[in-house]
Amino acid sequence: MSNEALAFLHALFRSDMPADQRAILCGFLGDPNDRLKNAWRPRPWRPGRDVPIERDENAYVCVATFCRRADGSYRRRKENFAAAHALMVDDVGTKVPAALIDALAPSALVETSPNNLQAWYFFGEPARNRDDFTRLVQSFIDAQLLGADPGMAGCTRVGRLPGFVNGKAKYGGAYPTRLVTLDADRRYTLDEISLAFGLRVARPRPVSQRQAMELALRQRGTPQQFIDERTRAFASFLHQMCALGMLKSDTPDIDGWTDVVCPWTGNHTDQADTGGAIRAPAEENGWHGAFKCHHGGCAGRGWRELTDWLADEAVLAMERKDAET
Ligand SMILES: [Zn+2]
């Protein structure tokens, strides 16, 4: 339990959360780089509740709140988006110059690793239009102001809660996360934020945030660290698929594809267990890895859809395990 975290959460979300919506927290022990996706199991939270995370764990909160799903669960997924409550700028003082926040005083500053801050700009009114929020985030990415991990941009982005630890091995495995400043009355509209930072909020355009990021990375040349991170993520998904018995072969075919069981086999004609294949990270797939399935119903399903499915599967498996114990 952490008073700092509770003060932060109450300031961020205040008390006006509808009964069928929740903030989503995550928490786990150890180095986030070593954890499989199921570490990110959502822990729904609403004002008045305790924080269900131990002090020696990594703890995170998502910038948005989410609506209850038909089965009663809450997921940090864009299709369940309720409202965005803040913009979070990562890596202030390290990858993003500390002077950035001179442009606009943050509502909160959280130190997440030595001299590295996450700056939070709380919204006066929650942003219930996801496109408006996405465009604000996109304008920060375009200006390269969002920190090291714009892959997490958008309404599913998480920041670290103060009063817990950063378990990354490179910081000794238990670096305390700390609230540096908090002013709950310092709140902004989306327009005030983009104006203060001199951002041009893009009109809707035919590329996704992810495409824009890939483009920016291609223009800059892909850094090795980025390739390493995506390769590690691929390895983690591969491990999970192996554990689920989805891999049909140990080695790729001559074109580099490895046959797998398609998660949507039940929708195939005659439920044929054919057609699914994955491919290792490479430049052509943005170092993510790739998935394809030749069945008509699976057209348009790629690596993103496969890994979303695997992440959900991991959460469900965790819940089943919890239910047994
Ligand atoms: Zn399929």
What's the structural blueprint in terms of helices and strands?
Layout: H1 3-13, E1 21-28, E2 43-45, E3 58-67, E4 81-92, E5 108-113, E6 116-127, H2 130-142, E7 158-160, E8 165-166, E9 175-176, E10 178-182, E11 187-188, H3 190-196, H4 209-220, H5 224-243, E12 257-259, E13 276-279, E14 290-293, H6 303-324
Parallel strand pairs: 6-11
Antiparallel strand pairs: 1-2, 1-3, 3-4, 3-7, 4-6, 5-6, 5-10, 8-9, 12-13, 13-14
The protein binds zinc ion.
CATH superfamily of the largest domain: RepB DNA-primase, N-terminal domain
Strand content: 15-25%
CATH arch. level architecture of the largest domain: 2-Layer Sandwich
Instruction: Could you tell me the CATH topology label of the largest domain.
Output: Alpha-Beta Plaits
C-alpha Rg (nearest Å): 20 Å
- Bound ligand species: zinc ion
Uncertain runs: none
Just give the CATH class of the largest domain: Alpha Beta
Mean pLDDT across residues = 87
Helix content: 25-40%
Give the ordered list of helices and strands.
Answer: HEEEEEEHEEEEEHHHEEEH
The tally of structural domains comes to 2
Shape: globular
Class from secondary-structure proportions: alpha+beta
Give the helix tally.
6
The beta-strand count equals 14
Between the first and last Cα atoms, what is the distance in angstroms?
23 Å
Characterize the main sheet: 9 strands, mixed
Explain briefly what this protein structure is:
By secondary structure, this protein is of the alpha+beta class.
